[in-house]
Amino acid sequence: MDNRTFSHVLLDQFEGRSGGSNTRFRWDGEGWIGTDWNRLWIKSEGFVDHSSVSDGDQELLYDRPIPRMKYFDAQVGVRADLDSGPARVWSAVGIEGLAPYSFEFAPTLYIRNDGRVAGRINGAYSLRFTQRTVLEPQVELNFYSKDDPEREIGSGFSDLDSGLRLRYEINRKFAPYVGYTYEGAFGGSAKYRSNNGEAVGTSSFVFGVRIWH
């Protein structure tokens, strides 16, 4: 029984983001297959804006529980930035799990063969008002050791994607939601956006659905 194979797929964000006259589509999902001790994870996220894909991030990871560290798994693998911009491939190592008070926490370090290093911190918390109504604050922070002009990424604290979503679980596996998001660029990344006439910070109304299987 310890070697029984399980699987799980979660489409956490499948949403439209409307800010003024512009509406973009966002997806963010993950899935795994394996036993209690060895799992293969796939993660994917990105934006679609006027048929152009940006912030495309696909990850393939090996996952294993961390001894004597309850509710956390170690993950190692590869990340590929695949979208309308130049492709980038990184090695990935991180942890994912539940911190005290059921706070979802996932810091990951990425390394490329040219000496570039990147970091990402994901965090979220589900505040349940009723058995079906859930408010979820969420944040993603990104850091880079060097500029990448071709992808318009600056070194240091590069950008954040944050949101507050109120969902109603019609059942445990299907939950439409509405909410608010804020995307911000900082440092060199903010300069790239300003030079291109883009907003450094964007607030949006969100409508979408959360699905898991």
From TrEMBL:
SUPFAM superfamilies referenced in this protein's UniProt entry, alphabetically: Autotransporter
Species of provenance: Silvibacterium bohemicum
An example Gene Ontology molecular-function term: copper ion binding
InterPro entries per UniProt: Autotransporte_beta_dom_sf, Cu-R_B_prcur
Source organism superkingdom: Bacteria
Protein name: Copper resistance protein B
GO cellular component: cell outer membrane
Biological process annotations from GO: intracellular copper ion homeostasis
